[in-house]
Design a protein that fits this description.
By secondary structure, this protein is of the alpha/beta class. The chain has a single domain, classed as 3-Layer(aba) Sandwich (Rossmann fold), CATH 3.40.50.1470. The protein has helices at 2-21, 44-55, 93-102, 136-145, 165-169, 175-190, 192-196, 200-209, and strands at 25-29, 61-63, 68-75, 78-85, 110-116, 124-128, 150-155. It has a seven-stranded mixed β-sheet with strand order 2-3-4-1-5-7-6, sandwiched between helices. A hairpin with a 2-residue loop joins β3 and β4 (78-85). α3 runs parallel beside α4.
C-alpha cells in the first residue's frame, strides 16, 4: 500500500507540473509569411498581433517546435503566448494542432485573429466557434482541431466581383479601407484587457455595441 501511495503521489506531482507548463491563452495571428504579403488584406490577423506585441512590449522568437514565431508573456497572472505561424495561411492548422497538443488543454483557450470578407472594413467581431465561411485558414484549422475555438474577425469587405476573392485578399487595402482597418484595430485594442483575460462575453459586448 505504501508503494501504491508513493506512486500515486508521484503521478500527481507529474500531472501538476504538466498542467503548470500549459498556457492560459494562445493568441494566433493569421497571415502569409514574407514581405510580399505584408500589410495585405489577408494579413489583418498577423498585423494585429504585432500591435498586441508592441502594446505589451513582447518580442517574437522563432520556435521550431511550433513552426511559428512566439512571444510568451504574463498578464495579470495569466500565462499567454502570442503566435505567428510560419506556414502560409491555408496551412495554419499545423501550428494550431501543435499548440492544442502542448500549450493549452481546450480550444476555448485559442484566440485566432483573422480577416473576414463577410464584415465591412472597420468592423470587428468576436465569435466562439462556427464555420469557416470559405476562409481557407479557418478551414484548415477546423480540420485539425475542430471548430470550437475563439475568433476575432477583422472586416476587409468583398471584392467587386465574387470570382476575384483570391486576388482580393492578397492585395493591400486602398487608403480608405486602410484607415477603416486601423480603426477596427484601435477598437480591438480598447478591449485588449478583456481579451487577454478571456472575458469573451464582456469583450463581445464592447466590440459589438460601441460606436467609434
Amino acid at each position: 500500500m505504501r508503494m501504491e501511495s508513493l506512486l500515486k503521489k508521484i503521478a500527481q506531482i507529474v500531472l501538476r507540473k504538466k498542467r503548470n507548463k500549459l498556457q492560459d491563452l494562445c493568441i494566433i495571428g493569421l497571415g502569409n509569411p514574407g514581405e510580399k504579403y505584408s500589410k495585405t488584406r489577408h494579413n489583418a490577423g498577423c498585423d494585429f498581433i504585432d500591435l498586441i506585441a508592441s502594446e505589451l512590449q513582447a518580442e517574437f522568437k522563432p520556435s521550431k517546435k511550433f513552426d511559428a514565431e512566439i512571444a510568451d508573456i504574463s498578464y495579470k497572472e495569466h500565462r499567454i503566448s502570442l503566435v505567428k505561424p510560419k506556414e502560409f495561411i491555408n496551412r495554419s492548422g499545423k501550428t494550431l494542432k501543435l499548440l492544442r497538443k502542448f500549450q493549452v488543454d481546450s480550444n476555448d483557450k485559442l484566440l485566432v485573429l483573422h480577416d473576414d470578407m463577410d464584415l465591412e472594413p472597420g468592423e470587428v467581431k468576436l465569435k466562439i466557434g462556427g464555420g469557416h465561411a470559405g476562409h481557407n485558414g479557418l478551414r484548415d484549422i477546423s480540420q485539425q482541431i475542430g471548430n470550437d475555438y475563439v475568433r476575432l474577425r477583422f472586416g476587409i469587405g468583398h471584392p467587386p466581383s465574387n470570382t476575384d476573392t483570391n486576388a482580393w485578399v492578397i492585395k493591400k487595402p486602398n487608403p480608405e479601407e486602410k484607415m477603416k482597418l486601423k480603426q477596427s484595430f484601435e477598437k480591438a485594442l480598447n478591449s485588449l484587457d478583456q481579451l487577454l483575460q478571456k472575458k469573451w462575453m464582456v469583450a463581445m459586448n464592447a466590440l459589438h455595441t460601441n460606436e467609434h
